[in-house]
Write a structure and sequence with these properties.
By secondary structure, the chain is an all-alpha fold. Helix content is about 80%, strand content about 0%. The longest helix has 27 residues. It is globular and about 50 Å long. The termini are far apart.
Length: about 270
């Protein structure tokens, strides 16, 4: 680990990775419990389409081009999920597949040859100062939101109708969570890419729920699992050549999920 930290690009990757892991874990718990977890997958595909268009336009900072587009998409996806007239799963599927198709089309238009692999699978080792700065800002916002408004987030997560009745502005909190998720996904795509970033939102929350029953312990455990997988994934990729970082992080999440599930099964049988 000490040897790994001697390289500036690894320090950058570790910094961004840990910060995004914390954000994904915190937001993921709320999204999974509210059954909004597929929004993350839809937004990642929107981000892919936006980044592809930015690359075709030869923009110097594609991230700033992608952020507003993904945030707008997050707003509309939230409105769709709140509407009973449209099936949310179908709407997310239409938007995500359309955005993915637009990204592939944009990458091939006019003979442009863009390496889609960096968008599909990520490239955490190439993160720069801009990624670090945005990661710090977004992580501060997410952490402060959970600290300052923990009780209200707890309320809208488990009983939104009751929260409305008590005067909580549920639409505002849902919008804040959606927009923060959008920003986290755009930055996180540099880590894991379009295909894998949603796993960072879903896996830690599901893993912690195998053993933890209280909301606070689920959040804390989810953060620990998420950070561990990122650090362990980076270290494994550093020690073993030609192992993709993003895939390693997701596989570690899968392994921990299976281990926690097995422990949960054993504990239930012992109680009987």
């Amino acid at each position: 680990m000490i040897e790994m930290l001697k390289y500036p690009f690894m320090v950058n990757a570790l910094t961004v990775g840990v910060l995004i892991a914390i954000c994904c874990a915190l937001l993921g718990v709320v999204l999974v419990l509210k059954r909004y977890s597929m929004i993350g997958d839809g937004l990642s595909h929107v981000g892919f389409g936006a980044l592809s268009i930015a690359a075709v336009l030869n923009l110097n900072s594609p991230i700033w081009f992608s952020l507003p587009i993904v945030m707008i998409a997050a707003f509309f996806l939230l409105r769709i999920t709140e509407s009973s007239r449209i099936n949310s799963d179908a709407a997310i599927g239409v938007i995500s597949s359309s955005a993915l198709a637009i990204g592939v089309f944009a990458a091939s238009i006019n003979g442009t040859n863009i390496n889609l692999q960096q968008y599909m699978f990520g490239s955490i080792l190439s993160v720069g100062e801009t990624d670090i700065a945005v990661s710090i800002v977004i992580s501060v916002f997410v952490i402060l939101m959970f600290i300052l408004f923990y009780n209200k987030i707890f309320a809208i997560t488990f009983d939104e109708n009751f929260s409305k009745a008590t005067g909580i502005n549920t639409k505002l909190y849902n919008l804040a969570i959606s927009l923060l998720t959008a920003v986290t996904i755009v930055i996180g795509m540099r880590m894991l890419g379009t295909l894998l970033i949603s796993a960072m939102i879903i896996f830690p929350a599901l893993t912690s729920m195998r053993l933890c029953k209280r909301f606070l312990t689920v959040i804390i455990t989810s953060v620990m699992v998420s950070v561990f997988c990122v650090v362990a994934g980076l270290y494994t990729s550093f020690e073993v050549n030609d192992i993709p970082v993003g895939a390693t992080i997701v596989i570690l999440n899968l392994i921990l999920f299976l281990i926690f599930s097995l422990i949960s099964i054993v504990m239930r049988k012992l109680k009987k």
